[in-house]
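> agent: user asked for a holo structure of the chain below bound to zinc ion. Plan: (1) validate sequence alphabet, (2) canonicalize SMILES, (3) run complex prediction with ligand conditioning, (4) return tokens. Step 1... ok. Step 2... ok. Step 3 dispatched.
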Amino acid sequence: MAPFGAQVGPMSGKRDYYDVLGISRDASEGQIKQSFRSLARKYHPDKNPDNPEAESMFKEIQEAYAILSNPEERRKYDVFGHERPGGSPFGSRGFQGVDINFDDLFGGGFESIFSQFFGGQQQDKSHGSDLLVRHSVPFQAAMDGMDDDIEIEVLKHCSSCNGSGSNIEGGSRTCPSCEGRGRIDEISMIGPFRQRVRKDCAPCRGSGRLVTDPCSECNGDGRLLQSIQVKFSVSPGITSGNRLRMRGQGEAPNTLNGYPGDLYIEIDVEKHQWFERDGADLLMALPLSFADLTLGTTIEIPHIDSENLSIKVPPSSNPGETITIPGRGLPFNGNSPRRGSVTVVLRLQSPKKPTRSLKNKIKEIRAELEESIPPIEERIREEANSRRSR
Ligand SMILES: [Zn+2]
Ligand SMILES: [Zn+2]
């Protein structure tokens, strides 16, 4: 069992982009560029011929820079890490690396190469943005599951103009320059290369629509911040950090015939009053008096499955010993009826302010107690031996 409260997040084989560039999470744009430039110079293939290790470093640095130098991509990375919804921002094949002239790493010739990475699908106006909200549920939800709902403010199509941006017939029309896509492709030269560059369409300013008579509700944008209620349910065994994906509940697209984004609800399970959690297993400490530890006892406490938890403490117990009760922990995530276990660590609770009469009684039995256990040095040795063999 892991120590109290240990929680391990999802693991990805990829290194953290900030670590790759050796910068802190609040690094400025200038610091990011400076660090990229100096690392890229160090690992550039021209300086490291036939060195596959340097080559893969060079690619890793480029990928980290491509993301962190783009404010929108950096924000998404800060929220989702490598586990972002919709897969790699570089497409299904992942980041492929780019050719950068060594000379460009001294000037500024490399920026334009990176600035066009996300020109396409990321700012695609026909797909609304995904949203992420965090939501706390009581600990009991991890036992029983629960139905819940949240109210959030989301950009949705304006109902007054049905998302067209104008409530007068003919007051808005599809932009003829981009045919409603909001983006246009241009061929331009980057160094010696011909490159297709995707740009916001100028006449419609990327919206794909020309509005001559703007709707007074949304000022012609076609979208409005609206408060919506989202119902969802969490299943038994839910863990903090689990994300529920609500398809189509994210932002409306900026065009009439696009798709809304998705809403992700990240669940935070509140702490239990006394249990620490390790997956489906629960761990608690039970402070007992000297008498209960010596004589043994049975403790009954209310439990998460609404049946009392009965903890049988055998006679001659010692603090630090554990009692495991199988099958009374949390359900495993999924539909399995199996449940984890409850582990109880025994502790000694000495009286803080014993009365004079209690002190006198303990003094009376002190000598007898001392005779009933081994001499002090033997006790210490025995304890050390059992601790080491654990
Ligand atoms: Zn409107
Ligand atoms: Zn246009």
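> agent: step 4 complete. Summary for user: The pocket of zinc ion (ligand 2) is lined by residues 175, 177-178, 182, 201, 203-204, 208 (CB under 6 Å). Residues 1-11, 119-123 have pLDDT under 50 and may be disordered.
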